[in-house]
Amino acid sequence: MTYSDIFKDHLASPRNAGEIPDADASAERINPVCGDRLRLTLLISDGRIERARFLAYGCPPTLACGSALAEMIEGMTIEAARCVSRQQIADALDGLPARKQHAAALAVETVRAALDAERDSDFVMVK
């Protein structure tokens, strides 16, 4: 399978690359098999993701999936973003080769970890 024009565009012009210094939620995940790494930072307000930024290190599909994910989840509710699937990310790139599906899996794992961290930070202990 060759990569789509949309995939190539995400590589040439990544969407939402970078970090949010005052992020409400963040996570970094590493694929232990290949070493690919994805970091996601989120600005959340009223249960909705206002801004999403990513940093990626690894194969081109990891960068493209990070870009597609960050673009896709901006404006989503936390609940909707938690339900983003590998297939949705692959579809946003007009497909991924079977041997590169790990990049979409890493993106899904990272967004869920960031949202779990945000949820856990809402816990306040009252003495």
Describe this structure in words.
The chain is α+β, with helices and mostly antiparallel strands and 127 residues long. The protein has 5 helices and 3 strands. Helices cover 43% and strands 20% of the residues. A 3-stranded antiparallel sheet has the order 1-2-3, covered by helices on one side. It has helices at 5-12, 60-73, 78-82, 86-92, 101-121; strands spanning 25-30, 37-45, 48-57. Mean pLDDT is 91; it is low at 122-127. Helix 2 (60-73) packs across helix 5. It has a single domain (5-119), classed as Sufe protein. Chain: A (Alpha-Beta Complex), CATH 3.90.1010.
Keywords:
3 strands; globular; 127 residues; 43% helix; disordered C terminus; three-stranded antiparallel β-sheet; Sufe protein. Chain: A; alpha+beta
